[in-house]
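To whoever is on call:

I kicked off a structure prediction for a single chain this morning and the downstream step that reads the tokens threw a length-mismatch warning. I double-checked the sequence; it's 231 residues and nothing unusual in it as far as I can see. Pasting both halves so you can look.
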Amino acid sequence: MKKNIVVLTGAGASADSGINTFRDADGLWEGHDVMEVASPIGFAKNPELVLDFYNKRRRQLFEVAPNKAHYALVELEKHHQVTIITQNVDDLHERAGSSNVLHLHGELLKARSTRNSSLVLNWHNDLNLGDISDEGHQLRPHIVWFGEEVPLLPRAAEITRGAEILIIIGTSMQVYPAASLVNYAPASSRIHFIDPKPNVRRTDYPNLNIISERAAVGVPQLVTELLRQHH
């Protein structure tokens, strides 16, 4: 029987591909205060700095490749109904071959109008001041910044409600929105949590299985196990 599997992924899923995790221990993001480069206020104050910050991250995408965790999820999709809800703004899930990916925090390879948030363009090059939409407004990264709504959260909650199995990879169970999404999973669903430094106890959730491994190690392990049970 095909199971309905929902996968929540965070920075840890891409870390093995060489993409820097979101923040260093000191709260700085590649040397910047997060609010300088990831908030509407920061963008209003210094748009060049913000655009440059995301240009560097976008360029980095072309130097990295999906890792074993991404490919294991593709394998899982061949046998089950798999939906990935990711906090990551990279395209590594898609590049590996996953077909059902919801990006909660936006996508680096897209840009949108500063005036009309529904006007979203595919964007693979640097984004500069003076790059404007057809309507004549400056374009910005298609990223959910601090202080902005997460427009896809209701959809993500709806998807999680249908999870027979919930797999959480490389994201803290304490941090919004992943933590809030867990609560939408049915009480009967099995939860697998993969993180090298898990910050939950087995008693925190019914049916919780903790795998204390990096994504590239733990995800293939779990997928092998799930496929074995399937056959």
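Update from on-call: the warning came from a stale cache, not from the record. Cleared it. Sanity check on the structure: The radius of gyration is 18 Å.
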